[in-house]
Here is the input.
Amino acid sequence: VIPAIDETHNSELRSWVDSANTPTTDFPVQNLALGLFRVMNGRARPGVAIGDQILDLTAVVDLKLLDGAEARLVEACASDGALNPLLAAGPEQMRSLRSALSLLLRDDSAQGRTAREHTATLLVPTVDAELLVPVRIGDYSDFYTSIHHASNVGRMFRPDNALLPNYKWVPIGYHGRASSIIPSGEGVHRPSGQTRDDSRALPVFGPSRRLDYELEVGVIIGRGNALGAPIPIASADTHIAGLCLVNDWSARDIQTWEYQPLGPFLAKSFATTISPWLVTLDALAPFRVPLATRGPDDPAPLAYLDDASDRSHGGFAIELSVWLTSAPMREAKRAPFLVSTGRYESSVYWTPAQLVAHHTSNGCNLRPGDLLATGTVSGPTPESRGCLLERTWRGSEPLTLPTGETRRFLEDGDEVSMRGRCERPGFRPIGFGECRGIVSG
Ligand code: CA
Here is the structure.
C-alpha cells in the first residue's frame, strides 16, 4: 500500500492555535497526533496534540463540531478510557477523523472559525494535563530489528560470531510484558534481581548495578486479525495505526545471568515507558522511505516478508535522539546532555510491515492496541548507538557529563528523555513528543 498524501499534509496549512505554527513544534496542524489525557485526576479523555495545547475531543463532540461516525468513535473512546475503539474501526475511519480534525484546527476553514470561538472550552494547555498511555495494550512484543545493535551486542559477547546466521532471514523477537508499560514522565524504580557478575562467585540478589535504557520505536496495531488468519505483507500497513517512541528499560546484569536459554525475562519486565502521542500512519505518509540497511549481498526476504511497496516505502525517515539529565545537572539547571542521535531508516533491517507479517505468519492474532517495538535502534556510528551498553561499550568507554560526572550505566536521579522528529523538503516537520522517565533507587 503506497501511503496517500492529501490536503491534510499541505505544508501551507496554519492553525488558529498559534503555538502550532512555530517551526520547532512537534505538533503542527499537519500532525494531529492522538492521545489520552486527564486534568486533576478526572476521567481519561481522548485528545489531539496541537502546538502546546490539547484539543479535547469530548468537548468537540459536546459542541457538535464533529458528527456522524467520527463523533460516535470519540464517544466510544471516551467511555472506553482508551483509543482502542478508534484503532479497531480501521484505517478508513482513522483517515476520515483526521480529515475532520484538520478542518477543525485550520485557520482558513468555516469549521476552524467556529471552533476558534470556543477556544476556552476546547483547548487544555498540555502542561496542565496528565498524559496517559493512549491505548490499552493487551500484548507487547519486542523485536531486534537494528542490524547495528545486533552486530554490536554480538561483538561484545561473541567476537567470532557477531551476527547469528538467522538474523537476515527471521525478524527476531520475544514476547514482552504489557502490564508494566507506563506513560512518559512516570518514575522508574531500579529493579532488584539475581545476578552473577563473577563466574567464580555465587549468584547474589540485590538492586541492579547496570541499569540501561533502550531507544526504540513502537508500532501500535490498529485493526486486528482473526486467530489462524495471517496478515499478508501487502496489507500489513492497513493494520498499523501509527508509531510512538519506546524506552525498554533494561537491567544488563540481571539480563546477562538469566537470558539463556529462553531469552529476556525479569531484566526487561519491570518498566517500559512509551511516549504519550500516537503519531498516525496517515500523518507519517510524507516520511515513508526505503530502508538503507540491505546490501546487494544480503539474501532476498522470503516471499511472505517481501513486497514491492514495502521495499520502496516500508521505512520511516525519523531522526531519533536520547538526552540525559543527572540530579546534579538538574540542580544546577543545566541543559540535558545529548547522549546519542541517529536515524531510524538507516538503522533497522526489518520494516514494521515485515514485523506484522512475520508475527502473524503462524496464525497468531494481533489485537487493536497491541504494541510491537523495534528493539534498540542503533545506527552505524558510535554517536548513534541507542543504549548505554553500546554507547559506553559495556562501561569501558564512560561518558562525561557537563558536570564532570561520568556514566557507564544509569544512576539514581538520572532522567532519560527520547525524541523523534520527521523532516522532508516540501513538508511540515512533525515529531513524537517526549518519552521520558527518571530513575529512583
Ligand atoms: Ca528491547
Q: What stands out?
A: The chain has twelve helices and 27 strands. Residues 295 and 349 are 10 Å apart (CA to CA).
